[in-house]
Write a structure and sequence with these properties.
heterodimer; A: alpha/beta; 12 helices; 12 strands; about 25% strand; B: mainly alpha; MetI-like fold; two-stranded antiparallel sheet
């Protein structure tokens, strides 16, 4: 267990809405090992972002509520601990980088103010020490003239710069765990490459365990050590990234990989998985993926698939392997 | 961040302010004189009772006040005096207009200041609470009472408060004593009901505006960022959300400040017998005391223009994205 930094077991986060209970996360299991980059992968609405928010209980509540499961961190169950305990972990032990840097920064406060505020909250530093720390963090993130940027407001920075500021902010108190919620989604391709470089460097320079949320398998292949494929609020397959790419077990994972365009072939249309993600209020019975699954069997409609361990590092929830 | 452009902007706005004030002055000047009334009207009963010739007496009075001259001549005289700092002579109180205003402005100022502080402070607090506790019983209760507050005309509220708290219960005296210091306990007590009268409508409005401005920002991504930092909820709401909600609030509060100078404070002063500019202006209108009417209107105009300018400058400090170029 020493090797495990965070363990999420059977996590269930539901939203009580007027139209019904949205089971955004409904039984997710994974463990984050020290120093690794674990990718949570899936389509929009599969529950990956809510999973991330659940770890620090950052979803809106009401309507959201963790209705079951455990989030074990450092001898504490983050799903049940008091808000006071959780606040000491937020931003200090576990930090999160949000996807849209544009809206994730407060428009009326300076960059310096927003980062220094967090440092002073968690670390025993005075203002000028916190300020120096902020400047060196910003420089580390490749922000030119970091000292001047302290007095800038978010609107004076480009999208890529804002994303760097957010990453610097998340690292400001030397967290054990970094959760990155699609940090490359809202930026263009060149910035995306630069942001990924930052994550590569971070991995080399700091002993940081990262949960990287994305829908982009190309990003997973580049940055991830292991990946958890999510569908309908559940984890359907967990394996090292090379296994996921070369030897996918779940029909959904295979589908995702087939969707990746292959530059060596010409095709009129790109491959896609037929159908759309299920309505989280009325999940299909049995395996949530069965209406879209090319290999669906009778049992898939009736029974939820059990979790099957196909090899030491590979597990999949699918009736094909029972 | 330097704001060197602000200086030119302020100069430009001040020039506009002078032009607008001049326009309003001119319109007021003409309006008060084209009516069928005359400053001599209030002496008519006395003149008739004394058995004098009315036409002759009226002509004599009008000549004395200078209102018999052609209107353009009167206008030129008035403007000439105004440029020398002479605001004219009050017919009905027999003293220079500047003297009259100097004695009375402080009472209006005191009433408006206390009412605005009362309304803004309480309104913002309740509004924030209502937004954070959206759709709870407390929120519904505050919402209900704020609609009541917005709907009550303040002259009616004033009369009701006097009836209940002064006449029936005898808790507050209803007259203001100018011989006592401004902030003496007695006068502050006498101001309780007027402040409630003038402040209730504003307070109720601020509750609504604060609530909606807070709700606009409460679900924004940067609020989640603030929580993810580990900040206590008090800082998240009070700093991150409120700073963003402040801009529309300042607009409303400043706008109200301008409009109560002309509207609410006026009526409240009359109901409660507070000897402020509202009272002065009210008496001047009934006495056809033209110079006083114009002076009070002009002061109100300047206050509104000045408040607007201050508001616009405040914006640039509250929201760094705003620039006027």
């Amino acid at each position: 267990m020493d090797n495990v930094s965070l363990k999420v077991s059977n996590l269930r986060t539901h939203f009580l809405t007027r139209r019904g209970i949205v089971k955004a996360v409904d039984g997710v299991d994974f463990e984050l090992r020290r120093g690794e980059c674990l990718c949570l992968v899936g389509e929009s609405g599969c529950g990956k972002t809510v999973t991330a928010l659940s770890i620090l209980r950052l979803f809106d509540s009401p309507p959201g509520k963790i209705v079951g499961g455990q989030i074990s961190y450092d001898g504490l169950d983050l799903a049940k601990c008091s808000l006071r305990q959780l606040r000491q972990i937020r931003g200090k032990d576990i930090a999160i980088v949000f996807q849209e840097a544009q809206s994730a920064l407060n428009p009326v406060l300076t960059i310096g103010d927003q980062i220094i505020e967090q440092i002073k909250l968690h670390l025993p530093l005075d203002y000028s020490m916190a300020r120096d720390r902020t400047i060196s963090l910003l420089s580390e993130m490749g922000i030119p003239s970091a000292k001047r940027v302290l007095s800038y407001y978010p609107h004076q920075l480009s999208g890529g710069m804002k994303q760097r500021v957010l990453i610097a902010m998340s690292l400001s108190c030397d967290p054990q765990i970094l959760i990155a919620d699609e940090p490359t989604t809202a930026v263009d391709v060149t910035i995306k490459a630069q942001i990924l470089d930052i994550f590569h460097e971070l991995k080399a320079s700091r002993q940081l365990s990262t949960i990287f949320i994305t829908h982009d398998l190309a990003v997973v292949a580049e940055i991830g050590d292991r990946a958890v494929i999510m569908y309908g609020g559940k984890d359907v397959e967990t394996a090292p990234v090379s296994e996921i790419i070369n030897n996918p077990k779940h029909p959904y994972t295979s589908g995702l990989i087939e969707c990746l365009p292959d530059v060596s072939k010409t095709a009129d249309r790109l491959a896609s998985i037929p159908g759309t993600t299920p309505n989280p209020i009325e999940m299909p019975k049995g395996c949530a993926f069965h209406p879209r699954c090319p290999k669906a069997m009778k049992i898939c409609k009736q029974q939820e698939p059990p979790e099957i361990i196909t090899s030491k590092e590979h597990k999949v929830s699918c009736h094909l392997y029972t | 961040m330097g704001k060197s452009w602000l200086r030119g902007y302020i100069t430009k706005r001040l020039i506009y302010a002078v032009i607008i004030a001049w326009g309003i002055l001119t319109v007021t000047f003409i309006l008060v004189r084209v009516g069928p009334t005359s400053p001599a009207d209030r002496y008519l009963a006395n003149i008739a009772a004394g058995g004098h010739d009315v036409t002759q007496a009226v002509a004599a009075i009008e000549a004395r006040y200078g209102v018999d001259k052609p209107i353009l001549v009167q206008y030129a005289d008035y403007m000439g005096n105004l440029f020398q700092g002479n605001w004219g002579w009050s017919f009905s109180t027999s003293m220079p207009v500047t003297e009259l205003i100097k004695t009375h402005w402080i009472y209006s100022f005191q009433l408006i200041l206390l009412s605005s502080l009362f309304a803004a402070f309480l309104g913002i607090l309740i509004g924030i609470y209502s937004a954070v506790k959206q759709y709870t019983k407390a929120d519904y209760t505050f919402t209900f009472f704020s609609f009541v507050g917005i709907s009550i005309p303040n002259f009616w509220l004033g009369i009701m408060l006097i009836l209940i708290f002064s006449v029936k219960l005898g808790l507050f005296k209803t007259y203001y004593d100018t011989t006592l210091p401004l902030f003496s306990i007695d006068n502050l007590k006498a101001l309780v009901l007027p402040v409630i009268t003038l402040g209730t409508g504003m307070l109720a409005g601020y509750v609504r505006y604060t609530r909606s401005a807070m709700l606009d920002n409460l679900r924004k991504a940067f609020v989640t960022t603030a929580r993810a930092k580990g900040l206590p909820e008090r800082t998240v709401i009070g700093k991150h959300v409120f700073r963003n909600a402040l801009l529309p609030l300042i607009t409303i509060i400043m706008f109200d400040l301008g409009s109560i100078v002309f509207g609410g404070a006026y009526l409240t002063e009359i109901i409660f017998g507070i000897p402020g500019l509202g009272q002065v202006s009210f008496n001047a209108i009934f006495a056809n005391d033209y110079p006083v009417v114009i002076a009070v209107t002009l002061i109100g105009t300047f206050i509104v223009l000045l408040v607007n300018l201050i508001t616009d400058i405040t914006y640039t400090y509250l929201d760094p994205r705003i620039r006027y170029d």
